[in-house]
Amino acid sequence: MKELRQYWNSLTGAVFLAAYALMIGYQFYVGNLLAQNGSVSRLFESVLSMLMFFIPILTMRLFAEEKKMHTDQLVFTAPVSDAQIMAGKFGAAWLVFGVGSLPLLWAVCVMAGYGCFQGLTLLGNFTALCLAGALFIAIGMLVSACTENQVVAAIVSYVILLGMWSIGYLQAYLPQSLLLDVIRYMSYRSHIQRLASGVFDCSTFVYFVSLTALCLGICCEVLKMRRDG
Fold it and tell me: Whose CA, among 68, 89, 97, 114, lies 20 to 30 Å from 104?
């Protein structure tokens, strides 16, 4: 609740929600309405490709601001564990992200009204949005916990997300090998594309859940080091 109040009472939450809603509306208007394209996957692909710019705005202040203002000691002396601190911040950020994604439901309803409705594809795209959002937030939280500068946290988070997106393009320049398989698996773009096409692969869920858990686990260790230090 503390984190949610800070989002609602600060410019961070307002800027994120406004920019995110504007981006969804623009992509829907240009990519679907003007182009007379009823593809839900196209809309979600455009939105997911832009999330790497917006999620760092949401996560940059989670730990960096407290560390810079030296208010983190108030959190560390509270009767809660590091895991609870991390879970509270993650849950608040993910909830704000979910609220910001609500305009997508309106866009989907408009397309469904024109007969453009594919249940399995729609479910896959919403699943990809939820899993990718959770992973992006976990990465942003980890970076924010490692610095006290919000701008640095946002830039580093963006660079990491962009790198994980674009690493898949190396496939065209590498011969078939174990390295190629690793690169193909590490690119979240390929996993998102499978979900967007309605293919629910176990390896995709393992990818997102394991990386999210790994980032949150490392974040807990960073918090523990700061508490002990």
Answer: 89
Compute the distance between CA of residue 102 and CA of residue 113 in angstroms, rounded to an integer: 17
User: What span, in angstroms and rounded, lies between the C-alpha atoms of 105 and 88?
Assistant: 26
The number of residues in the chain equals 229
Residue 214, both tokens: 């790994």
> The pTM is what?
0.88
pLDDT 10s digits, 93-138: 899 999 988 888 888 888 777 766 677 888 888 899 999 999 999 9
Q: 20-56 burial, b if ≥16 CB within 10 A, otherwise e?
A: bbebbeebbeebbeeeeebbbbbbbbbbbebbbebbb
Domain span at residue 54 reads: 2-228
Instruction: For residues 28 and 206, give the distance between their C-alpha atoms in angstroms, rounded to a whole number.
Output: 30
Report the number of distinct structural domains present in the chain: 1
Task: Provide the 3-class DSSP secondary structure of residue 120.
Answer: helix
In this structure, what is the dihedral angle of CA atoms 71, 78, 15, 191, given to the nearest 10 degrees? 120
